[in-house]
Amino acid sequence: MDEHDPCPKKAKVTAPSSPNEESNGVTLQKIRLMEERVVKLEEDSKVLTDEVTSRLSRSSELYLRPVQLGFDCGHRGGFELMKGYAKKIFPKGEWDNVDPIKAKRIHVTSITKDIRVVWWLLVAVEGYPVQDLVTSLPGQPKVGFKQFAGYVDVDVNNGKSLFYYFVESEVDPHNKPLTLWLNGGPGCSSVGGGAFTELGPFYPRGDGRGLRRNKMSWNKASNLLFIESPVGVGWSYSNTTSDYTCGDASTAKDMRTFMLKWFEKFPELKSRELLLTGESYAGHYIPQLADVLLDHNERSTGFKFNIKGVAIGNPLLRLDRDVPATYEFFWSHGMISDEVGLTIMNNCDFDDYVYASPHNVSNPCNDAISQANIIVGEYINNYDVILDVCYPSIVEQELRLRKMATKISVGIDVCMTYERQFYFNLPEVQKALHANRTNLPYRWSMCSGVLNYSDTDGNMNMLPLLKRIVENKIPVWVFSGDQDSVVPLLGSRTLIRELAHDLNMKVTVPYGAWFHKGQVGGWATEYGNILSFITVRGAAHMVPYAQPSRALHLFSSFVHGQRLPNNTRPSIDD
Question: Could you say which of 413, 484, 485, 492 is catalytic?
Fold first, then answer.
């Protein structure tokens, strides 16, 4: 065959629907691929690097089937590895795109003197869905770990689907736990928040058109799963309008369905240790998710969730305790006057405080609260009172982002919110993430503008659910950035102490400093060897955002079931 003859760019090739199917009179040849063995293809397709061989060795079985091409054209040998590594090897010539890669299919073309054949390698891609593989994000630095993103249908009849983003651990992902992270709101994106602002592997660049590495990403210690929940958040959606009116119970139910179906996509992770984490209103999401997963475990005679820990940052746990802590924080930090602070303390009965305005408190109390909010003003970031604010300018429809505030002395990009918003609305980014598959009639935003979330659910007390979790021998860590005025440490510390008292637990680690890199990382206490309260010095509502190194140290200790070090003293020279 003259290899200079014109060749069609594509040709349809019929692949077997199962490994046992026969085609063209040729029986499928099943081959066990061991680490020391390389599959011998035709002469032009022998080259497989050591790296590819090692990675392919994780696939349990390969199935090879020769198929004659439906056109008279030769193709040089080539191999495209789709096991999540986006690595291409070309023994000779260029890759021939004979047929679009389907889920769990890789194909190699080779040529002999007599016939042209296509070798289909049907592999399990380590149990992961190829169609959700994110080969690379626009402007992304090169990395060695795999990313997946896509949808899980939680209610097919209603057309309800949740969007997820999954990142493998940087090192040894096959032996690391799975950490699920949820942001709060209610109604804010875990992908935009947790994954791309706080603890994921990438941050948006200053121009909003690319990414930079987060050197303190939590995927150094664990595989990470971020979910945009409930529907109406980020790219999660429903074709049924009533689904956008929801609350804690429906959110927890959908999350349980999501997890069951997500593990069908990623069966190798079913038996992994599962860590449930989040922040803010995840103080509701995570305990209620753990509750429904424990219910499942009690009923199921088959698969059970392997829950090994719960960790929640600056969580809303009990409104009537967390709200007064905000105004105590304002007063103790000199943000409101003694007069206003004392008026709130003397006139506000927070025992009956409710989420919805006017909060079921007296008029003098509401007046004092309003005055406090005016004094603090809109020019202070309540989520981090020591952080500067960003004043962006978005130029009409061109969406060009101009940064008028950049980084302050502590190295925090205070405009990251706007960079993230810009990046996620780029069409090429959504395509790379397999997102927005229904072309939603609104732009991606960090917090939902279409969600109608129950106000009354915010009033619920989460301590009984945390009690059940602890009684199931699941460690619970509540951590608080000490510069957060929205859900301050003052309320969380009190609530965890009350929970420990309810559980009849004694102090197993007295309240004291913990250390990181020779400096005080914060303060911590532990009850009953299982329930911990931890502060992170210099952090705020989004702990990993303001103190990434201390946050990673805290998370790594949590993953390994280790207490934070309390015996490392900094060396101070006079």
Answer: 484
**Based on the domain organization, do 163 and 239 belong to the same domain?**
yes
Residue 238 bears catalytic tag: no
What per-residue confidence (pLDDT) applies to 207?
76
Of the listed 516, 541, 553, 557, which one is catalytic?
541
Stated pTM of the model = 0.77
CB distance 223 to 177 below 8 Å: yes
If DSSP states are collapsed to H, E and C, what string results for 243-301?
HHEECHHHHHHHHHHHHHHHHHHCHHHCCCCEEEEEECCHHHHHHHHHHHHHHHHHHCC
**What are the backbone dihedrals phi and psi of residue 514, each rounded to the nearest 5 degrees, phi first?**
-115, 155
384 is catalytic: no
- The dihedral through the CA atoms of 179, 283, 521, 382 has a sign that is positive
Q: How many domains does the chain have?
A: 3
Q: Report the DSSP pairing between strands 178-182 and 274-279.
A: parallel
Question: 280 an active-site residue?
Answer: yes
d(CA 503, CA 519): 33
CA distance 406 to 125: 42
Q: State the chain's mean pLDDT as an integer.
A: 77
Are residues 136 and 196 located together in one domain of the fold? yes
Q: Which of 110, 280, 532, 557 is catalytic?
A: 280
**Cβ(281)–Cβ(185) under 8 Å?**
yes
